[in-house]
Amino acid sequence: MATAYVLVNCELGSEEAVISELKSIEGVVEVRGTFGAYDILAKVESSQVEALRETITWKIRKIPKIRSTLTLMGIQGQE
């Protein structure tokens, strides 16, 4: 399972609309509003890295009112 965390900056006052849109995207498994340098944190999962990249590039980054994103790719940790 491929996992990415996407930090989102959006236009002032559009946070709720962006959160709602993010929740409707297949593969987005968790969305949280945040305080600090970024407005929203989204967790995205897919069985394939390529599908994960397409979701972020062609779905998440195209949401109106999003100014910028920063993607953190998860790596499998030791257990």
UniProtKB/TrEMBL annotation:
Write down the Pfam families for this protein, in alphabetical order. Answer: AsnC_trans_reg
UniProt keywords (A-Z) are: Glycosyltransferase, Transferase
The residues covered by the Transcription regulator AsnC/Lrp ligand binding domain are: 6-73
The highest taxon in the source lineage is: Archaea
E.C. number(s) listed in UniProt: 2.4.2.18
Coiled-coil boundaries? none
Q: Is the keyword Glycosyltransferase in the record?
A: yes
* InterPro entries found in the cross-reference section: Dimeric_a/b-barrel, HTH-Siroheme_Decarb, Tscrpt_reg_AsnC/Lrp_C
- EC top class, in one word? transferase
The keyword Transferase is assigned to this record: yes
A GO molecular function term, named singly, is: anthranilate phosphoribosyltransferase activity
Query: What's the protein name?
Result: Regulatory protein AsnC
